[in-house]
Structure formats: C-alpha cells, structure tokens
Amino acid sequence: MKDMHILAIIPARGGSKGIPRKNVRLLNNQPLISYAIQNAQNSNYITDVYISTDDVEIETVAHKYNCEVIKRDPKLALDNITLDPVIYDAVLKAEKMQGLTYDIVVTMQPTSPVLRATTLDAALAHFIANDVDTLISVVNKPHLAWKEENGQIVPNYTKRLNRQELPANYLETGAFVITKREFVKENTRFGAKIGVYEISEDEAVDIDSYLDWALCENILKKKKIFLRCNGYKKIGMGHIYHCLTLAYHLTGHDVTFILNEEYEDGINKIKESYFPYRLIKNDADFYQLIETEQPDIIVNDCLDTTAEYIKNLKKRCPKVVTIEDLGTGAAEANVCINALYENNHGLSHVYGGEKYICLREEFLISTPITVKKDVQNIIVMFGGTDPSNLTRKIYDLALQSDGKIQFTFVTGIGYDAIANGIISNEEKNIVVLNNVKNICNYMEKADIAITSQGRTVYELATVGLPAIVLAQNERELLHTFAKAENGFINLGLGKDVNCDTIKKTINDLVADYDQRVDMHEKMLAKDLKSGVNREINLILE
C-alpha cells in the first residue's frame, strides 16, 4: 500500500435539472460536493483527489476545500455522456499533472454525502486484499419483485418468502467504484472480475430528488447519544422509564443505553424495549467506552453527580446533559434538566420545574377521566420497585374493606408481588397486575389513585385522576408538584403515615364528590404535554 498511487475522481457537472445547482447547494450547512471531497481527503489510502467539472461555481467550492480541479471539456458535460469517458479524461490529465501512472482509480459521486471515510477505507482495504478488478458499492435490498414478460406481469422469484429469507439483491449506489488503473478506458471502468462491497442503507442514499435530499439531511443531523441510567430496588425504575421516553422521542438518532451490570431490574426493562444497550462495571469502564465509541451527547440520568465525574465526561464528549441532578456536577454539565425540582440555583443552564416534565407517549394521547358520583375503582401504584413497600401497606387496608370498591394494584418489574403476599382476591375485589404495558389505560378506568411522589403524579395529572400521595423517601419530598393547589392530597413520607390516617383519607375522598371534581379540574389546568419536546430540544440543540 505504501508504494501505491490511488486517485479519487469526483465528477460534478453544473447542469443539474432535478435539483438546480445541486452540487454546490448547502446540505446541513455544507455544499453537497464537500462531503465527497472530505471523505476522499480523510482516506488513509487515497493519495490524490480531483474534481472533474465544467462549472465555475463548483470549481470555486472545490478550491475552498483545497481540492484540485480538472476542467472538463464541454462535450463531456452533455446530458447523454456517461461517466466512463469523463473518468478516463480526468485520469489521463491527473497522471500528466502528477507525472505518474496510478495503480487504482476511485470514482466518487458527489451525490452520496452520507458515505463515511471509514467505510471508504474499509472498501479499499478489501479491494487490495482480494483478487478483483473492480469493486462496486452496493446496498442489499431483497424484495419480492415482479416483471413484464410477453405482455404479462409475472413474479421475478420462484418462491414467496419473508424478506429475511430472500436471496441477496444488490443495488448499486453512487458511493464509489474502485478499479485497477488498466481497466479505466474511454468506454468502461470495469474489469472481468467484479466484486461488490455492501454498505449500510444509511450510507447508500444517492441524491436524485428533493426527497433524497431531505433524507440525507436527516441522516447527517443524526446524533450518537448515550443514555446512562439504572433501575434497582433502592432508587426505583423512574430513571429507566424516563430514558425510555427520551429514546422513543429521539427517533432518527443513534441511541444506546448504558447500564451498570449489577442492576438487573433496569437491564431487564431495557431488554424488553429492544433498544441497544451496553453494560459497564464502573465509571472508568464508561470513560473507556466513550473514548472508543465517541458519542455526540451523553444524557446522565443517575441522580446526583460530582463535578469531577462530569468534567471527565466533558473531556471525552462534546455535550453532557444531567437529569434530576442536585450534586456538584450539575454546575459543570452543559445542560441540567431538573423537572421534578423548581429551583435552578441561579444557574442559567439548569432548567427546572413541571415545564420540562417528560411524559411517556401513552400520556400524550391520553383522555381525561370523567369524575363519577360513585367511586368504583381505586388504582394503587408505587413505581417499578417500591423500595418502601408501600404497596403492602395499602393492600392490608384493602383486605379490611367490604369489597364494594375494586382495588387495582399495579406493581412494577422490580417488585416481587407474590413474595410480598400481594395477590388477587376475588372476595375482597382486589386485582393485582404486574408490569403492565399501558398503565394509562388503567388510570383512565379508575376513580382515585394512591401513588408515590415521583413522575407518576404528572401522568395522573394528564388524565385528571384525583390522587393520594405517599413519598417513598426523603428525596421524593423535594418533588413539589404533588400538592393541593395542583389537585393532590399529599400525606408526606409514606413510612411515617399510619394506616388509620390513610384509611380516613381514602374514605373521605370517596365520599366527597365535589372535592374530587375540584382536584380533577386543578390537574387538567396544567399544560404538561409540551414538556417532552422542550426536554428533547435542550438535549439536541
């Protein structure tokens, strides 16, 4: 390789009709042609890069990107001229200017901006290592296809199969054609031995239309995002659910969950989601992963961070976002989003309060309940793990009831209901459900909720479901949204509230229709459904 001379030719004429001035128009703030130039210049194999063009504007842009230009004869810029004579002409002129004969010639179309230089180099390495004369970039798109034969439409396959089982169907892309110099002639660039190099669909888009242009722009704006979170008994599953919500709204971006390997509850939930995830042992392991994978953004949803930890992340990643962070690291992060807390501590990059709450998708399309005179169903939810076992406390009260009102207990993936004696009881009208997929449906069918003081209270507010709140721990007491003026009855720290108080509160609320209507109206007065877009914007902007 060291003694090889490898030439890249980028053919770009000025007469684009489908998208006028296509090659020099700005795509994601760069001229379209600049992507091919930079890929070729960043290659570890290519020794010389030339633009072949008939257009002064393209020539000017090429020079701005320090790329040599070969002026194309007007007769080679006509609509009916194929690339073969254009590349042949450029190779002859480049060899004359450089005073050498090239070993390999690479044709790179300017209309393939989403190709990566690393992919180009991998293809060149493959070409050099294998006995082929010409290597073409392809994308594999197996599909059931039809053709016209003797005036009839007939299948272009022998057996109907699922797409995954169909044989390979390689479509050429414009990303590159790599060929040995001796096969570059006026009427061809292909030798006898043809090879294909498969590239991903993300890198295979050729811009022929405005739809292709929009697709490429989206691909180029794609960010690699790490979401670091954990879920286990002590802290619950709120961080996992929150990051899952973010992931569902970051469609089009490359999202990976980063989880500590010892916390199985959170890992199991992410496995259910089918999002990619990586397991780490500790912070040092995380730093190494960042250096290897080079994410664009890290979202750290692990409660309080230290300044040292955030500084270490910022050394390795351009943008670091922390969530619900009351530690010293909050001041060091690029952005801190504390939706559960109102105070930003005087820091302009800290965004606090209900305005930034991130609701799951099911609650963005939720329907408010109708407050009924007679309470028929009380839903009880204490999160994914219920570290204080408040479920058991309410379950004991339900066992004392007369069974006229149904108690629906919804337990999370990290709470062992059976081990805690929480089972359905038909006689007492008790229903126990574990790890339900759409909790909103159950809220919409309830008349009263009993819950902890985390993110669930915002979800209840979107459906206007009157709620009695018991905090899991001292930290939850700092979450100020669940208060009377927002439609909640907050009894404080759950472990300190005696059963008689809870029982009386439930009975009073069941009996007081007017109070439930008032709570319902106060909840629905809050605009919580826009928070997720605000949070996504803070992460991406």
Supply the number of helical segments.
16
CATH topology of the largest domain, by name, is: Spore Coat Polysaccharide Biosynthesis Protein SpsA, Chain A
Largest sheet entry: 7 strands, mixed
Gyration radius (Cα, Å) is 31 Å
Which assembly state applies to the chains in this document? single chain
Can you say what the CATH homologous superfamily of the largest domain is?
Spore Coat Polysaccharide Biosynthesis Protein SpsA, Chain A
What does this molecule look like?
- By secondary structure, the protein is an alpha/beta fold.
- It has three domains: 6-141 and 167-219, Spore Coat Polysaccharide Biosynthesis Protein SpsA, Chain A; 222-352, 3-Layer(aba) Sandwich (Rossmann fold), CATH 3.40.50; 367-524, Rossmann fold, CATH 3.40.50.2000.
- The chain is built from 16 helices and 24 strands.
- The strands form five sheets. It has a seven-stranded mixed β-sheet, with helices on both faces. A seven-stranded parallel β-sheet has the order 14-13-12-15-16-17-18, sandwiched between helices. The chain has a six-stranded parallel β-sheet with strand order 21-20-19-22-23-24, sandwiched between helices.
- Strand 22, helix 13 and strand 23 (467-471) form a beta-alpha-beta unit.
- The longest helix is centred in the N-terminal third of the chain and has 16 residues, at 83-98.
